[in-house]
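The step that takes the researchers longest sounds almost clerical: writing a folded protein down as plain text. Below is the pair of lines this work produces for a single protein:

——
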Amino acid sequence: MPSQREIRLNAFDMNCVGHQSPGLWAHPRDRSWQYKDLEYWVDLARLLERGKFDGLFIADVLGVYDVLNGNGDAAIRQATQVPVNDPLALITPMALVTEHLGFGLTASLSFEHPYPFARRLSTLDHLTKGRIGWNIVTSYLESGARNIGHKAQTDHDSRYDYADEYLQVVYKLLEGSWEQDAVLRDRERRIFSDPRKIHPINHQGTFFNVPGIHLCEPSPQRTPVLYQAGASSRGKQFAAEHAECVFVASPSKVLLKKTVADIRRRAVEAGRDPYSIKIFNLQTVIVGETDLAAQAKWKEYTSWVSYEGALALVSGWTGIDFGQYQPDQVLKYIHTNAIQSAVETFSTADPDRQWTVQALADWVGIGGFGPLIVGSAETVADELQGWIEDTDVDGFNFAYAITHETFEDVVELLIPELQKRGVYKKEYAQGTLREKLFAAGPQLQAPHPGAGYRVKTSTPQEVS
C-alpha cells in the first residue's frame, strides 16, 4: 500500500557547471554553463516555486577535486565543480521573485569565523522574510584547507568538536544577544533600540573568544533552519543534536532505511522527537511522457557523461585516486579499506552488478551517489512512494541530469501526479521556512539546544 505521507522536495544545485552530472554541461539543452548569470537562477527559482518545491538546496565546496592523478587537471578540464562561485549572493535575487521557496545555503564553518557569519545569516533571513536554511558542513577537501593557511585538513572528529563550539557561538549571537522587543523604533523619543535589552555574549571557549553583541536585530527565524549532511557516526550524532533537516545520499533502500533509523534513534537519545528531523535522500529522476520516452531520454543523457569527470568527483569524495586503476578493474579486488567500504555500499544498492571502476563512474555520472529513477510520472511516483514507505525517509533532494530540463519535467509531469495521489501539497503553507516544514513556530523550539540560548524578555524599563 503506497504511503499517504506528504513528500518533501528540494531541488539540488550548485553555483557551478554541471554539479553532479559531469560532462552534461556540453549537452545542447543544458543551461548550467550560465551559472554565473542571474537569469539562470531567477528562472530556476520561479520554476521551483511553480512546482511548490520546499526549497532549493545549494551545495558548495571551497577547494578543487585534485585527488585523481594527484592534481586538479581533470576537474578543471571537465568543469567538475570548478569554476565555482559563492552561493550566498544567489539567494537575494531569487527571494525577490518568489514568495514561498526556501533556500538552503551550504557554508563551511571550517573557513569562516562565526561572528561575521552570524551577521550574514541574519541579513539573509531578514531579506527573505525567514526563508533561509543553513547546511552546516565541516568540509573535506585538503585543497580548501591548504588555501586558507592550514597545513592539512583537521582530523575528522576534531572538526565536529570545533563545530559544536561554533554552533554555541552562533546560537548565543542569534538567540541570546537581542531580546525580542529590543527594537523600539520610537520616533517621538528618538530611540531606535533599547541598549538594556541587547546583551554581550561573553563567549570564552577552546576555539573562540567572542565578547560582544550580535550586530543584527532579531530576524524572523533568528536561527535559520539547520541542515546537516554528515554521514559518519560522529556526523550523525551532530545531526541528531542540532539538525532540523538531514541530507543523506544512500544508493539503496536497505542502506537508507538503516541510516534513517539510526538518525531517529540518536535524536531520541538526545531528548528530541525523532520526527522533528526531516530527512532527505539524494535522488535523480528522469521523467518522460511514457516509460519508453523517459528511457530514451536517459540513454541520450548517458552518452554525454564524462568518465574522467566522474572519476574526479568520486576520487575527491572518497580521497582515493581511481586514476591508478583500469576501467575494467573489479573493485572487490582492490584492497583498501575505503574501497571495500564503497564496494559494500554499491553491492547493497545493486548486488547483481559487477562493480568495476567504469561501473562506478557510470553510476555517479548522472546525479552523484544517489539512486536514479527513470520512467513516466506514474512510474516515478510509484517509486518515490515506495521509498517513503520502505525507508521512513521524509523526502528527496533532486539532483539534475541537465538543467533546467530535469526540473521542468518534474514540475510539468511528476508534481501533478503526486498531487493527484494526495501525497504532495497543492498550496504552500504560510510563514517562514521553519513554519512551512514543521507547522510550528517561526523560531527554534525546546528541546532543541539552540532554543535554550534565547534570552528571555526582561521587564520593560524607562529608557532615557
Observations:
- The two ends are 67 Å apart (CA to CA).
- The first strand starts at residue 8 and ends at 14.
- The chain has a mean pLDDT of 91.
